[in-house]
Amino acid sequence: MDNVGCVKDKHIIGEFLEPAMYLKIINHPLRKHILNKLFQATTGGPVRKKYLAKELGIAYPRLVYQLNEHLNGFWEVVREEKIRGAREELISPVNHNTIYCTLSGDATIHIVDPLANLFGRLNIVGTRCDRCDLTQQQKCIKRMIEQGCADNYFKPEERKDILVANNRKTPYTPVDYMLLCTITSILDVKKCVVSPKQV
């Protein structure tokens, strides 16, 4: 996965996103734009918020408000620097190569992939792997197997109906498998049971 939206030699991490957070992003073009610019601008290292505001073409206070109030789980302060007597924060995504996903009641997978600028329903926006040719996808799957991910990624055969429900066709891409693994890990959590005391 060395091209189009991938950070070279970095693992792509799947993370479940709460549906309420997903809705806060998907219905807000500015938040999507901020996330995309943040993830792209920091591939070489952290950036100052003022730099990010300038790159986005928005006022600094507006950016700070969005970051602190609506996007606070996606970034972190890496370090602070003193510039002309003022302290400036350098920020970066928690992980540059995270693809966030959530699942709606009808088994629809929704993704937020800020680095690749993909936001929405999986069956509409696809994955960053869709931009790679089949040879590259197969190399990535082979690498996943070599890294020992096979059990986690390829085992849940019974869950592949979720990919079918999202109009994903075989051969599945590496990100398809990663999304399935992320969703499955949430679905397979043991249920909590309350045992009331017998009177």
Concise summary:
By secondary structure, the chain is of the alpha+beta class.
Q: How are the secondary structure elements laid out?
A:
Layout: E1 13-16, H1 19-26, H2 29-41, E2 47-48, H3 49-56, H4 60-69, E3 75-83, E4 86-93, E5 98-103, E6 109-113, E7 118-121, H5 122-125, H6 134-146, H7 150-154, H8 160-165, H9 174-187
Parallel strand pairs: 1-5
Antiparallel strand pairs: 2-4, 3-4, 5-6, 6-7
Helix pairs in contact: 3-4
Keywords:
199 residues, Arc Repressor Mutant, subunit A, three-stranded antiparallel β-sheet, 9 helices, 7 strands, 41% helix
Describe the structure.
The protein starts with 12 loop residues before the first strand and ends in a 12-residue tail after the last helix. The chain has a 4-stranded mixed β-sheet, with helices on both faces. It contains 9 helices and 7 strands, in the order βααβααβββββααααα. It folds into 2 domains: 14-93, Arc Repressor Mutant, subunit A, CATH 1.10.10; 99-112 and 122-184, no CATH class. Helices cover 41% and strands 19% of the residues. It has 199 residues and is α+β, with helices and mostly antiparallel strands.
